[in-house]
Every structure is written in structure tokens, then in C-alpha cells.
Amino acid sequence: MVREQPKQAPPPVQRLRVRYAKRGRLRFTSHRDFSRAFERAVFRARLPMAYSSGFNPHPRISYAGAAPTGSASEAEYLELALAEIVDPAAVHAALDAAMPDGLDVVEVVESPGSGLSDLLQASRWRIVLPVALEEVQTAVTAFLAAGEVPVERMTKKGLRSFDSRAAVLSLVVVPEEDGAALDLVLRHLEPAVRPDDVLTGLTSLHPLDLVGVPLLTRLAQGPLDPATGEIGDPLRTTK
User: Fold this and answer.
1) Does some domain include residue 231?
2) Do 56 and 74 belong together in one domain?
3) Is the pLDDT of residue 2 over 60?
4) How many structural domains are present in the chain?
5) Which of 28, 207, 176, 157 has its CA nearest to residue 102?
6) Which secondary structure element, helix H or strand E, spans residue 222, and what is its range?
7) Is 92 within a domain?
């Protein structure tokens, strides 16, 4: 007996890009937990989602460039595919009302085209450290002067070694109450260099007495202007 083939889902008629934030204690939400919470919010908001084809169709949600677990972020992105044309402002209000506090929808716009993942080329981070400003500046000066700063991190494929210096486009120390903060711009490379990898590289060159978990916050994420080093807005960029 020939198994019946699944029906092919019709193509989406609208795509929306969503910017969302992870704040407060919700920064410890893993990407898997967030995706489950978001799909529940989509259901509660009664959005007319487009679905994938196959025997087990899923709502068409494309996640891109998720921050590491434990990091706060003001610039996380995803794209929704819809079966009907809807007002982005109405989707924004409905989703934000359905999400838990701390996982906040910041903006929803119609997708201008192009692959969202391809636009997320760099991130800007703020890292707050309870360490004396002079000590942090010494570590940063050594890091920026180094041609290579190898670090190791456990990944799904095992322990990997890579250059934490290669992805750093800029690294500036700024004063912070009871310590210092780092303004860090990272290029998205393979393998990905995370802000905690940069901290590991810093402490390998000049030991820093890091007590507890430093507060890491992604402030921006998007296309990189190679001429200026500025990070653009992926909600409005088409290339």
C-alpha cells in the first residue's frame, strides 16, 4: 500500500520581522525555552501563521543570531511567515501581551526582503565588571596589542580552541559605578566568538578578579558597515 503523501502548504503571503529583548532574570532563558514561549504566544495571539509542509507541520518562524544563555539583550530577531496580511502594529501589541515579562517584543515591521540571518553580521555588547578601571584597562591594552589570543570552550562538537582576538572590531573601557564596563563590537565569524570568550582572553593576558557572573548585554545586532564600523538596522536593511 502506497503511503499517502502530505499536502503541500501554500506559500506565505506576508513576512514580518520581530525585534525582541531578554531582560532581567529572563536573560537565563535558553533559546529552546524562548522558542517554546514564543510559539505559545503566537497561539494565544491567534496569528494567522503559515505552516511548513509534511506530516508534522510547524508554524514558520525563523530564528537568527540568538544570544548565549545568561546574556541580556535588546536586539534579538526572528521572522514570521503569515497566511494572511495583518497590521504589524496589531501583531506587536498581541505578541507583547502574550509574552512573559522580561521577554519583550520591541518592534514588528514588514520584512523588506533578503535573508535575516545574512544581515546579522556584528553585535555591540556592554559588559559590566566589578573590577578596578585601571586593571581592566591594562588587560584591554594587552588584548588589543596581541596578534592572536587563543581560548578554549566546550561546544556540541567537544572542546574547541579558537582566536578570541580575530572577531573583535573595537573594545573600549568606560567608567562604571563600583568598577568598569566594556563597550565591545564583535564580528560574527565561524566559529562564533562570544563576549565571554573575550573575557577569557582578557584574563589570560592579565588576571582579573571576576566575582560572580558579569552582566553581558547585547545592545545592537545587524549589518556591518565596513567603512565606518557602524552596525545597521536589520529590520529595514534589504542587503
Assistant:
1) no
2) yes
3) no
4) 2
5) 28
6) strand 215-222
7) yes
